[in-house]
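Task: sequence design from structure.
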């Protein structure tokens, strides 16, 4: 992006021909000759051959399984449509799992982020700022401006936000700051009718291009809004038809509509926005009978209709990750209610919220990899104290017994990211089924069931902690204080015995530890993991000496078992990609660690600034 002056220079070198321009907007468009029947997406088959009993025995229940091969195959199909992976912007909201983000980042895709937190996650996973877009109806101006300055993309959702950005650009110009070089897109609230082929009870909730909805600037106001900009120019237009779109026509209509608006902008301002971001929305099946176009079928319908003068971007959520994740659960009870068999699983709508919100029931596999029936006299329930917590309302569970594994399919999009902590429940972590068939744990099992409840309250508020303050004499405290923490732990020492690396981002260290208490105390755990994290980070980045400060900004530590110090203590470190915090400043890294096997687990976020003074 550039200042208005630069924009004019650019338009002078790339004149917009008269034939590209349309005088009136909007025009209701027809899509002549579009076949309404095309190849359908199918329910994935990768999970049917998984050894569910072995996985359950080894990793426990309530675990996401992410299939790298399926994710890469989906990305490849989208890349065939878009031309390059960088034009596929993965909506982080669909599933912010670091494993998914890292695979997509390393495969060259881009990330679509709706909040500063999602931008941070994308950066930590290795997306560079030129492959990050920020799009939110509640966008933060400072975040948007910084991203533009560091080469990212900002999608302005309203006239008000466009004006605020333009004023920010005016201030930057006045202060002699360079024009930001990122791209500015404007979200359109299309004036064309975007409809599902088959209206469903949930359609109103998932339609994101409703004329009465909250997103974007109405088509009929776009040209005025863009031409009011003084300091900025608009590089592209964006719209998102909505989730679980069941036919290709809306995408074809939208592409033509955005192209028409872009040409109308060019007619008024002399500058053609050349990027058309068609958003996400392609649906995936949740039952054999569901009909949604495959990615290739969308391409077959869309590609011939696209104007090659524009660069087309896509933001698939469901149709990129939806079928690449399954949820492993197990049967915990079988009971009879008025003669009806209820089989109860330990996974439910706390993680599969779409069942509750939209009545989308996921396909469920039994222990043998065969799909459970979607009719029958039995019900498969979840574990929650909530009637709607039913995985399959009508099925046949006669083959299921307590302890059996089940696998819930198509749980990649809007499941982990929408999960709740109802009944104090936490997810059991995630496994990555790598493309080579190996399985690794990529996120740890969350803490005890009571943890989210315990953290959510201010304890003691009901029993007087807010009463008036009273002074306490220090000498009455000393007999209560731990001398070990106060003095003895200063004698804790550790030294490196052995070190190993696994690939570029995982390290393991054996330490000799001397401790007056005979086990690894919490402060020592932080020092051990902290130093191992620093050493790993610097090594990953290719440094041979520590020439600048590295400091922790957050810590999560769980010590489930005591770790004796009479034998070597092993610390394992896994690192995210080092994210640059802003255009030139300090960098961040997420670190996961385990100490003594899984006896202690935790994570740090650390920062460093390579320009800092040595220490
Ligand atoms: C702006 C934007 N882009 C892309 C998506 C992804 O949609 P889907 O998962 O339906 O493909 C969403 C989802 O709500 C969205 O809001």
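Answer:
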């Amino acid at each position: 992006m550039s200042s208005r002056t630069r924009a004019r220079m650019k338009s002078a070198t790339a004149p917009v021909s008269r034939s590209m321009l349309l005088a009136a907007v909007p025009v209701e468009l027809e899509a002549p000759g579009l076949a309404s029947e095309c190849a359908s997406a199918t329910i994935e088959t990768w999970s049917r051959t998984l050894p569910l009993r072995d996985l359950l025995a080894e990793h426990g229940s309530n675990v996401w399984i992410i299939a790298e091969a399926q994710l890469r195959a989906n990305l490849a199909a989208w890349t065939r449509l878009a031309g390059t992976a960088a034009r596929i912007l993965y909506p982080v909201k669909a599933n912010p799992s670091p494993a998914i983000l890292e695979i997509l980042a390393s495969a060259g895709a881009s990330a679509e982020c709706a909040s500063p937190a999602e931008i941070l996650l994308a950066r930590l996973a290795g997306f560079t700022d030129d492959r990050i877009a920020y799009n939110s109806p509640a966008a933060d101006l400072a975040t948007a401006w910084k991203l533009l300055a560091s080469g990212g993309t900002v999608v302005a959702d309203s006239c008000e936000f466009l004006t605020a950005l333009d004023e920010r650009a005016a201030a930057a110009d006045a202060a002699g700051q360079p024009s930001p070089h990122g791209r500015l897109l404007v979200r359109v609230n299309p004036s064309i009718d975007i409809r599902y082929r088959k209206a469903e009870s949930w359609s109103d909730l998932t339609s994101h291009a409703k004329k009465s909805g909250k997103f974007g600037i109405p088509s009929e106001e776009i040209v005025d809004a863009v031409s009011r900009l003084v300091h900025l120019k608009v590089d592209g237009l964006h719209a998102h038809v909505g989730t679980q779109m069941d036919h290709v026509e809306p995408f074809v209509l939208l592409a033509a509509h955005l192209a028409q608006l872009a040409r109308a902008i060019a007619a008024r301002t002399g500058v053609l926005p050349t990027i058309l971001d068609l958003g996400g929305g392609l649906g995936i099946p949740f039952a054999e009978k569901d009909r949604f176009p495959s990615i290739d079928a969308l391409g077959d319908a869309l590609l011939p209709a696209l104007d090659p003068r524009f660069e087309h971007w896509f933001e698939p959520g469901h149709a990129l990750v939806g079928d690449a994740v399954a949820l492993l659960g197990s049967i915990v009870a079988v009971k009879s209610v008025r003669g009806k068999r209820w089989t109860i699983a330990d996974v439910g709508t706390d993680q599969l919220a779409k069942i509750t919100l939209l009545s989308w029931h996921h396909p469920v596999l039994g222990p043998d990899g065969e799909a459970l029936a979607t009719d029958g006299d039995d019900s498969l329930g979840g574990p929650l104290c909530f009637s709607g917590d039913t995985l399959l309302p009508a099925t046949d569970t006669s083959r299921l017994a307590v302890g059996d594994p089940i696998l819930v399919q198509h749980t990649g999009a809007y499941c982990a990211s929408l999960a709740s902590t109802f009944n104090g429940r936490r997810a059991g972590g995630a496994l990555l089924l790598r493309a080579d068939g190996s399985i690794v744990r990529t996120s740890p099992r969350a803490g005890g069931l009571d943890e989210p409840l315990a953290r959510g309250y201010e304890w003691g508020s009901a029993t007087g902690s807010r009463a008036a303050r009273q002074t306490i004499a220090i000498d009455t405290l000393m007999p209560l204080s731990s001398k070990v923490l106060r003095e003895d732990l200063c004698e804790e020492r550790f030294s490196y015995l052995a070190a190993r690396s696994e690939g570029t981002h995982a390290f393991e260290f054996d330490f000799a530890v001397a401790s007056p208490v005979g086990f690894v105390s919490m402060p020592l755990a932080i020092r051990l993991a902290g130093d191992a994290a620093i050493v790993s980070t610097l090594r990953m980045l290719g440094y041979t000496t520590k020439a600048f400060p590295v400091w922790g900004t957050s810590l999560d530590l769980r010590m489930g078992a005591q770790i004796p110090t009479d034998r070597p203590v092993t610390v394992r470190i896994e690192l995210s990609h080092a994210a640059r915090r802003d255009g030139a400043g300090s960098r961040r890294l997420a670190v996961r660690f385990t100490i003594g096997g899984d006896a202690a687990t935790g994570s740090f976020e650390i920062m460093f600034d390579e320009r800092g003074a040595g220490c």
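The mean pLDDT is 89.
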